[in-house]
Each structure stands twice: as C-alpha cells, then as structure tokens.
Amino acid sequence: MRLIELFFLLLKSDRLSTREIAQHFNVSVKTIQRDLDKLTVLGIPVIIHRGINGGVEIEKTYSLKKGVLNNNEFNFAMLALYIGNHLVKNDIFENLIKKILLVSGEKAKSEIKDFEKYIVLDITDKKLDLEGNFHSEIIYCIKYKKVIEVYIDSNVYMVNPIKYVLKDNGLHLYAKLDDRFILIPINKIKTINVKDQVFNEELTDYINNKANIEIL
C-alpha cells in the first residue's frame, strides 16, 4: 500500500528529498530508497537528483498506462474500479479513479465514457458500506475465527462467521448456526457482539455448499 501511495505522492509533487518522503510515511530513509528501487523495477521512471538541490521525482511525461500496464490490463483495471465505485458506498474507488484520470489523461476519460455508454450495473439497490458500523469487526472475526452474536429484529443468533458473499440482491454473511449453514442479509443485522470464544473446525466453503445453505 505504501508503494502505491509513494507513487501518487511523487506524481503530484515537485521534487522531494528522500528525507521528506521518509518523514511523510514515518519510515527510515533506507526504507524509502528500497521503495524507490521497487518502483524502478516496475518500470516507473524515477529520477534521483544528487547534490545540495537534489531530490526524487517521476519523469514529467510519464503515463501510467504506458509505464505499468498493457492496453488490456489498463482496460480491465479501469472496469474493475468502475464496477467497484458503483457497488461500494465509501469513496475509495472514486478517489482511485480520479488519481488515474490525473496521470493517464484522455485514455482513462475515454474508458469511463464508454463504460457509462455501454454498461448498466443493476446489481444491488443499496451500495455497500464496508467501512461503517460493524463490518471491520466481522472481517476480524472471519480472519481469527471468533464467534459472534448477531442481532436481527428481536432475535439473537450465535454464529461462526465464514465469509462475506455478494449476491445480486446485496451483501450477505455466510456463517454456521448450530449444525446449519446460513446466509444472513447484511441489511437485516442491527448490531453484533464479538465473543471471546474461538471456533477451530474447518468450515465448508460457500461454493461447495450452496445446496445446503438456508437464508435467515
């Protein structure tokens, strides 16, 4: 993630010293020097000026499309961002698109116009808010196999969370409730409570278990 942020920092800035960059990211100068080497390996024209007035910059004529991605990769990357921006409520995808428009110019603008002209996204009525409310807690519990209490209306369910599942009618939590595998529509959940209890059993993957899953 820091590598991407460093890339965009250099694109939007005039010449910066490695010390200034290190202070910006709160890391050592040596760490930044290694990051600059990685950008160079990726084909990004990082220019390092030596001396008193030295510093680091990216070649002014640099194009993201020409430097990192071939034409098909660029098109698919823009399509993925376009779809993500229509699915997710938070502005991360919109900000990424703006940054790519900044460095890729007319090609990116043309791609977005084509998507708007030829693609209709009718996937879910409500955008997903993956940063708000309890989503970070659910992801934590999925990762570390923590049991959670899920509050829906006046009912409380103690479940083992397995994965998020995006269906055409919205986002769901795939979980195990007692001996049943269930899908819980996220928009029905009022709140959750993370328990100290950890589950160690290997739970059946969603794709291989679709026929046995109930929608709560």
From TrEMBL:
Superkingdom: Bacteria
UniProt-listed Pfam families: HTH_11 (PF08279)
Leader sequence residues: none
InterPro entries: DeoR_HTH (IPR001034), HTH_11 (IPR013196), WH-like_DNA-bd_sf (IPR036388), WH_DNA-bd_sf (IPR036390)
The keyword Transcription is assigned to this record: yes
The entry's keywords: Transcription, Transcription regulation
Name the UniProt record assigns to this protein: Helix-turn-helix type 11 domain-containing protein
